[in-house]
Design goal:
By secondary structure, the protein is α/β, with parallel strands linked by helices. The chain is built from 16 helices and 16 strands. It has helices at residues 33-48, 68-80, 88-96, 108-126, 143-152, 178-191, 207-218, 220-223, 248-252, 255-273, 282-294, 301-307, 373-377, 420-423, 431-441, 450-467; strands at 23-28, 56-62, 98-102, 131-136, 166-171, 197-200, 231-239, 308-313, 331-336, 348-353, 360-367, 385-391, 395-403, 411-419, 447-448, 473-475. It has a 9-stranded mixed beta sheet with strand order 14-13-12-11-7-10-9-8-16. Strands 3-2-1-4-5-6-15 form a 7-stranded mixed beta sheet, sandwiched between helices. Helix 11 (282-294) packs parallel to helix 16. The radius of gyration is 24 Å and the shape is globular. It starts with 22 loop residues before the first strand and ends in a 10-residue tail after the last strand. It binds 6-O-phosphono-beta-D-glucopyranose (BG6).
Amino acid sequence: MTLSVKNSPAEVRPTPLITPTPTALVIFGATGDLSRRKLLPALFDLYRQGHFPTTWRIIGFSRDQYTTASFRQFVEKIITARPEKHTASQRADFLQKITYQPGQFEQGQSYLALSEELIRLETQEFGSCSNKLFYLAVPPTYYEVIFQNLAHSGLSIPCAGADGWTRVLVEKPFGKDLATAQKLDQILGLLFKEEQIFRVDHYLAKEALQNILAFRFANSIFELLWNNTNIAKVEIKFWEELGVGERGAFYEDIGALRDVGQNHMLQMLALIAMEDPGKLSAAAIRRKRTNVLKQLRPLTPADIRHHTVRGQYEGYRAETAVRAASDTETYFRFRAFVDNDRWQGVPFYLESGKKMQENKTEIAIYFRESNTCLTQVAEERHQNLLIFRIQPNEGISLVFWAKKPGFAMDLESKLLSFSYHDEYSLLLPDAYERVLFDCFRGDQTLFTSTQEVKAAWKFITPILEQWHSSPLLTYQSSSRGPKNK
Ligand code: BG6
């Protein structure tokens, strides 16, 4: 019998979005780092590919003194630098649908002006009510005041009848700890229903993370081994070569654990450890991810002392907008356990750092070695290793053992590997394209729920609290993090 392996480099694109209701997207912090680097390019790429509502407008809102004309120039510069080909008429049409509204996040007056602009759009351009999407691309310290002002100005209330909606997109970190996250949730809960709140964790929207679910539940050979009988440990690594760059002011208040640990990395852990959701619905998947986060064993003071490390790269204190005596961590490592039958006793090691020796985000599953005829003859340990490469070179590798040719029973490790870049000629969609597309169509699968955020903070907050009295180790740039960790 011949086994045929279907290996078609199919379209990696989502289906086009067709919604008859006009949509207005307001970006708070439209001239900031996130908007410039991620949102505006992603919006243009979605638009170019036809994955946009039929009728739409983007309103940039920020403190900077731009006019609509100068903001359009700002956007034009960004989209002209895109590597993907586009036509001049696409560019012109996109820019023509963008306007700018200067305003202060703290001033009610600015929201009234925004509200007037939206009414003008609806009456003079759309000719009907519109769906509204508010993207908070601002430092988390502004969330509360923006939420309050959205409510007072009436902007959070949908006006498009049964088919219309108002949605809010918020970036991580949502809060600084459990208490502040709960307070934000209370405020947000008064203004919006859960189905209107899209908490962005762009890692969930990365192709390689979505593939974890696919790989686990479409390949029963692995799922059968997915437990503490067969898995010895899991390592989740998030190394970045760059330092904080221009984001010193933001990072100083946040640190590595809040920046990527509480969210991106715990979500990776959740995808590895979660149970089969039974169906591919947002509610079912988010519930299973939440269950894992709730089952993280709380770290005791002794665990935090012995099994967590915090570090700062040399030179961090000289970065722009960083305090001269800063004790913000740019590196961390900790050990976690998931307290359930499947994972009892399996350590999960999570490590992240800026200015590390290489860019490497990956999840390594170490399988247990079994005692066989080969254990006695071989000098090496025969451990199998499954690696999810999140970036760069997204894909999956499996380390297995094979006999070396020759008269002795010598073994060596080999690699079975899958790489997205080798298999698909298309560029993988940027995570922010997926974030925006899913928000337009109202699919919350790749966004974190209130419960997930709460469970993650519950686990992380005690570490942050105890770290005030823990040593901060320094490490050299381009290294593997602090020595003696
Ligand atoms: C962001 C963090 O959420 O993720 C950054 O705030 C980090 O500090 C970034 O560099 C990494 O994202 P990506 O998609 O570039 O890997």
